[in-house]
């Protein structure tokens, strides 16, 4: 039987601004990547999101990003490996406090946005992030783009890793995601996105934007919870995966 984790970036509201429908999305995903205050989130939002995840028996992960609230962590920054290490340790620690205070445990770490994409290609940043995760807790799972430097760094460091794929993003021939700044980066049709996910999980392949077949490993699938149809998509993809004979469960149960 094929098995896959269904994760979503959550806790990305800030102050008086609300992002996404976290309480509803948590009914359909198996892992939650909770923002830690750098690219989004704040102490109150972190507390609330951890509470909701535990209530829904959803595994919790830290979602550390670059210190860029205005750009939502999606703009590259010229950071050193040491800075990446310190940022990740700091943010894991912040979320860990809220999880521990409510009697829960952290399952994984998944970098956000530009930090994630930079670490997918830059070995020194990837190794710094993997080391940060390992030093905080070697039992944590590192989520990273399938085939990326981040996944390789996690394996080299001794961490369990979960190669990740994206439901609503298109791919390049080298296995990287099409940059959001380019046309066609996002898949807006639900059925197209779901068909892509089922194929990535069951066949280990994805068709790039240029038509090339790319080998891929899908241990966890990211869906986004901030779109207008996010809730309907979350429900639909969960139903389709299970209807296709794919077991949907948190990564920590099989990795």
Poorly predicted spans? none
Question: Rg, please?
Answer: 17 Å
The computed structural class is: alpha/beta
Report mean pLDDT, rounded to a whole number: 95
Tell me how many strands there are. 10
The end-to-end distance, rounded to whole angstroms, is 14 Å
Strand order, biggest sheet? Answer: 1-2-3-4-5-6-9
* Elements, N to C (H/E): EHEHEHEHHEHEHEEEHE
Give structural notes.
With 255 residues, the protein is of the alpha/beta class. The chain is 38% helix and 19% strand. It contains eight helices and ten strands. It has helices spanning 22-25, 43-55, 81-101, 113-121, 123-136, 149-157, 190-203, 230-243, and strands at residues 2-10, 31-35, 59-63, 106-109, 141-145, 160-166, 205-207, 213-215, 220-223, 246-248. The strands form two sheets. It has a seven-stranded parallel barrel with strand order 1-2-3-4-5-6-9, surrounded by six helices. A two-stranded antiparallel ribbon has the order 7-8. Helix 1 (22-25) links the parallel strand 1 and strand 2. The longest helix has 21 residues, at 81-101.
């Amino acid at each position: 039987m094929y098995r896959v984790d269904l994760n979503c970036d959550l806790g990305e509201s800030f102050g008086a601004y609300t992002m996404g429908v976290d309480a509803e999305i948590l009914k359909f995903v198996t892992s939650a990547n909770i923002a830690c205050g750098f690219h989004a989130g704040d102490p109150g939002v972190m507390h609330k999101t951890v509470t909701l995840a535990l209530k829904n028996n959803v595994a919790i992960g830290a979602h550390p990003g670059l210190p860029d609230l205005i750009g939502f962590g999606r703009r590259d920054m010229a950071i050193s490996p040491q800075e990446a290490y310190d940022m990740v340790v700091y943010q894991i620690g912040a979320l860990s406090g809220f999880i521990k205070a409510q009697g829960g445990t952290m399952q994984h770490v998944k970098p956000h946005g530009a930090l994630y994409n930079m670490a997918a290609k830059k070995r020194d940043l990837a190794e710094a992030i993997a080391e940060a995760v390992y030093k905080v807790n070697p039992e944590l799972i590192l989520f990273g783009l399938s085939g990326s430097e981040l996944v390789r760094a996690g394996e080299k460091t001794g961490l369990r890793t979960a190669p990740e794929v994206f439901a609503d993003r298109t791919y390049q021939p080298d296995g990287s995601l099409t940059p959001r700044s380019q046309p066609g980066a996002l898949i807006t049709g639900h059925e197209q996105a779901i068909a892509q996910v089922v194929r990535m999980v069951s066949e280990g392949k994805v068709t790039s934007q240029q038509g090339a077949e790319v080998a891929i490993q899908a241990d966890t699938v990211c869906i986004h919870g901030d779109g207008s149809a996010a809730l309907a998509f979350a429900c639909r993809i969960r139903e389709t995966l299970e209807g296709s004979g794919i077991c949907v469960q948190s990564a920590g149960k099989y990795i």
